[in-house]
Amino acid sequence: MKKKLFLIFILLITYYLSLITAVNADSWSERPDYDFYAHPLLEISKSNDKFTIGKVTDIVEKQGQKETLNVQLLNGKIVKAETYKSDFPIITKKGTMVLLTQNTSEKTVVVDYDRSFYLLILAALFIFIVLIVGGIKKLTGLVALGAGIIFVIFVFLPLFLRGWSPLFLTVISVILITVSIITGINGLNKKTASAIAGTILSSIFVMILGLIFYPLAHINGFSLEPVQMLNYFSKNYTSFPFEKFSELLISILLIGATGIIIDVAICVSSIMEEMVSKNSRIARRQLLMLGLKAGREIAATVSNTLILAYFGCELIVILATTISIKSLVQLFNNEWFFIVVFQMLAGSIGFFVAVPLTALAASFLMVKKSN
Amino acid sequence: MKNFILFLFIELLFCQYLFADVFSKAKVLKIGSPEREKNVIIENVSLEIISGKHKNKIVDVKNYLWDEKNYNTYVKPGDTIVIRIGETIDGKIDSVSIKGYQRDKILFLFLLVFLIVVFVVCGKKGLIVVASITTTISLYMFLLLPMLKNGYPPIIACGFVAMLIALVMLLLILGFSKKFIASILGLSIGMLFSVLLSVIFVNLTKISGLFMDGSRMLLTATRSITGWTLSNFRGIIIGSVIIASLGVTLDIVVDIVVGMSALHHAKKDITKKELIASGLKIGGDVLSGMLGRLLLVFTAGSIIMLTVYTVLKIPVLRVINWEFFAVVILEVLIGSITFVIIIPATVFVSSLIFINK
What we know:
The structure holds two protein chains of two kinds.
Chain A: H1 2-21, H2 40-46, E1 50-63, E2 66-73, E3 78-84, E4 97-102, E5 108-113, H3 116-160, H4 166-186, H5 190-216, H6 225-237, H7 245-278, H8 284-301, H9 305-313, H10 315-324, H11 328-332, H12 335-366
Antiparallel strand pairs in A: 1-2, 1-4, 2-3, 4-5
Chain B: H1 2-18, E1 22-31, E2 35-36, E3 40-49, E4 58-66, E5 80-87, E6 93-101, H2 104-122, H3 126-149, H4 154-174, H5 178-204, H6 216-223, H7 230-266, H8 272-312, H9 316-321, H10 323-354
Antiparallel strand pairs in B: 1-3, 1-5, 2-3, 3-4, 5-6
Helix pairs in contact in B: 2-3, 3-4, 4-5, 4-7, 5-7, 5-10, 7-8, 7-10, 8-10
């Protein structure tokens, strides 16, 4: 109970502090991370609680703030668990799936709802729908995509915490994701090779843009709270303090842009291959021109995609920020705003330059001699 | 809970008082001798305000330089920086603090780079690109955000604005034709389905809206919208999925409708069954490529928070059940399902519209 109250206390304190420090300041009269030592995440990290999932079978007794439940664990065992009332209570009834901790004193406490069960159902539904619409063949393309993303999360993340350069790792993962997705969709041929070349060259272009503009605008991400947390926790709780925040932000920019660059490159290379198959004696220059013309159409129709994707993903943050930001001077000079706009525009530049770069690569790969 | 709400109202008043600050640009004139304290160096900086209503006034400010250099704004004489001015009730300068570096010029420079690339690659088509991007941004900024701030239900607001954006985009790309009607109908059916699905799952996973464990400011600011309740929080998750997936769904709908219409033109006596089969094939061909766009944007957005969990070695089971994480996965899955559902919906609707017997 004490622990719970303590957490709520911290929540409220941080809540007040957020008002005082104002939103998104990047010069501080008080260090914003001075209270991180009491962050709720650290509590979880320090306590060696084991987490399990269970299903409430029945409610044994209610006693003021405390409720005792019978919970069936996944292995069939039934244990007694406790749940406490708070401002954000976990309301349980028979059949609710809950997340439990079992700490050293052998007491089992309900800490949260179990959400993984429903997420799994949703994932199964997704796979089912893809199977109906696209058949088993399309599923392999999606598996390649999923593998790429899992690679980023489980291989890429842990390595840069060991002192590797995030930018180097990102370039490697972008190359791997690109190769796996494009070969997953098109198989191994010249079409694939030119799409891969176009994607990688454009990604490097986006990276160079980031490398030029982020330092110019003094971007290090420290007005974003997750970055403050990463900085504080890695310096104080791991043996590898993380330093390269600017590089990390460029990595994020690059990964977000890769998806659409890949897509545009695939479209351009497919169209060009069709042209070559229709007229095998086409001159290199002519092919390049036709490719550019077709690619232009594609780029023009997808121009909104990335902007809408970022607007959607960041809707809550944008709403929150615009509520508190009242003046244009503040908005246009805000670090977070710069990052969001830069991600949108630089990603879009990425797929625009993917058109000529892929067309160029394809014209060299698909036509042997320039005649 | 009641107390908590009361609390929020008091805070709301507090909030508005605090945010009545003025932001201006200022030029650094000279830097005085630094004072050293425990873990901070305080520079006394004298500034000339160069914009806003306090223009041409000269003020002295303390610049805090922490031992953690990333939190600092380094200045030298001649630099332009952004400052925050707190005012007294009668509009005089009460306090001044340094806010950060000036970034707007670089932002506009980059916008210029973007426009140059667009026009070099697209030529005259660049105008359509600029027009469609401008429409999207202005509908979002000047219609959606005010609607949300004024307390409209997020699902309705987002759905409405998404439909408006879709209408404009489709008119720009297709013109007013059978193709346009087919695509708008396909899009609406798909979206309706996804909204239903997401309402069910957001309620099942019991998202409370306190999921922003990374950002205190979100909680503060969104709570300050009067009349917002839990259902608004759940609604905004669904709304953000609608907006985020709108781009890709529009692309796939256009691809399918244009392809099917061309087929119908090439072969007038094509049967409904054949047309449906080829429509599904067109959709299936571009499915994984387009889904990749959406998934990688979402992945990029959650990398920092995932890294924080990795650093602290939070158990996997805890992370998966965390609201923040559950919301991301939920958004990704619902966005993807919407995207896939839209394929058969559009194919079916356009087969009905193109072949009417």
